[in-house]
Amino acid sequence: MTGSTPVPRIVHQIWLQGEGAMPGEAYAASRTTCHVAKDAGWAYRLWSESDLMGFLSWYPSLRHLAPSAAFRADLGRYSILWDVGGLYLDMDIDLFRLPEDLKGAWTVQGGNHVMAAPPGHPRVRKMLEVFGEVMTGIPATDPRPSWNALYQRYFCADEGWDGIWPQHLWHDLLYGRGQRPSPARECFGHHHSRSKQWGSFATLPR
């Protein structure tokens, strides 16, 4: 597996409770992403937790280590990229256009809200292995670290990625409900905090 392996042209998103449980604004955002993907000749798939449990190899074996829905959603994205490959996008991204001719494993600088890889990429496998090792090694009586802390410590290193998008291409922008910015010409999409206003899946009980 090298950086010359093409990324499958499929966009993935996750809503653990399934499409039927999505708030209206979240559903509308997923439909917009789906339409942008299909207009560009890409496929689109929205994954529920039952999908993750039923179709992926890593997720069922590591799910019990995830202390919250937010951790499960993060574990799910790596599992999807390992088994299926493609482009993963957080639900709180306004997608404007898609990268062309992606090859190898890509992430966005300083985050895991956008990632792409062909199936079976060693960088994705390493992230799954580290997730299992880190979560298994934490005594049950200890406070669980935030996923962001784990990601920054173990997964943000540049090693192993074939490409890293600078932040401005997936612009990290905070703005209020109903305030949609005009896309910069070179920008693929805007990442923002709208999911917090939805009462996101991360706040729901296990």
Topology:
Layout: E1 10-14, H1 24-39, E2 43-47, H2 49-55, H3 59-62, H4 69-83, E3 86-89, E4 93-95, E5 106-108, E6 114-117, H5 122-136, H6 147-155, E7 163-165, E8 170-172, E9 189-191, H7 194-197
Structure in words:
- By secondary structure, the protein is an alpha/beta fold.
- Helices cover 34% and strands 16% of the residues.
- Helix 4 runs antiparallel to helix 5 (122-136).
- The longest helix is centred in the N-terminal third of the chain and has 16 residues, at 24-39.
Quote the distance from N terminus to C terminus.
36 Å
The number of strands is: 9
- The helix/strand series, from N terminus to C terminus, equals EHEHHHEEEEHHEEEH
Q: Low-confidence segments, ≥5 residues, pLDDT <50? A: 174-179, 195-206
Number of alpha- plus pi-helical segments: 7
Radius of gyration: 16 Å
Shape designation = globular
- Helix and strand content put the structural class at alpha/beta
* Strand adjacency order, main sheet: 2-1-3-6-5-7
Overall helicity = 25-40%
Spell out the key features of this protein.
206 residues; alpha/beta; 6-stranded mixed sheet; 3-stranded mixed sheet; 7 helices; 9 strands; 34% helix; disordered C terminus
Summarize the entry for a quick read.
The chain is α/β, with parallel strands linked by helices and 206 residues long. 34% of the residues lie in helices and 16% in strands. The radius of gyration is 16 Å and the shape is globular.
